[in-house]
């Protein structure tokens, strides 16, 4: 069973699953908002952890601040990975729409 088939109604494959049409279900914009807040909390937690690790390293006698700064700054490039993945996914979807089966 693929991912999209689980979202469809069991008896009517063209209709959405009853859970997604429930009055209490989140709308797309609400799901995006909740996802954004969760990702923001992840960034805050990672930032705070890196701050504690950095201060522990520097307080313990590790005297190489350039390396620590380089590692912390280069970690920001990891935030680009989801963006690049979504961009390529959108391009593939856009190209596949133009192709007739």
Question: Gist?
Answer:
With 101 residues, the protein is mainly α. It has one domain.
Q: On the 0-100 scale, what is the average pLDDT?
A: 76
Number of strands: 0
Name the beta content range.
under 5%
Query: Could you say which structural class the secondary elements and strand pairing correspond to?
Result: mainly alpha
Order of helices and strands: HHH
Q: How is this structure best described in words?
A:
The chain is an all-alpha fold and 101 residues long. It has one domain (27-98). It has three helices and no strands. The radius of gyration is 22 Å and the shape is elongated. The two termini are 22 Å apart.
List keywords for this structure.
101 residues; mainly alpha; elongated
Would you spell out the secondary-structure blueprint of this structure?
Elements: H1 28-59, H2 65-74, H3 80-98
């Amino acid at each position: 069973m693929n991912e999209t088939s689980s979202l469809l109604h069991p008896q009517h494959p063209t209709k959405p699953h009853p859970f997604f049409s429930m009055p209490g279900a989140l709308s797309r914009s609400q799901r995006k908002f909740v996802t954004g807040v969760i990702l923001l909390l992840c960034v805050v937690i990672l930032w705070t952890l890196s701050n504690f690790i950095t201060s522990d390293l520097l307080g313990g006698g590790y005297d190489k601040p350039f390396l620590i700064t380089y590692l912390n700054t280069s970690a920001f490039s990891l935030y680009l990975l989801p963006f690049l993945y979504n961009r390529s996914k959108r391009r593939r979807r856009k190209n596949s729409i133009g192709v007739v089966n």
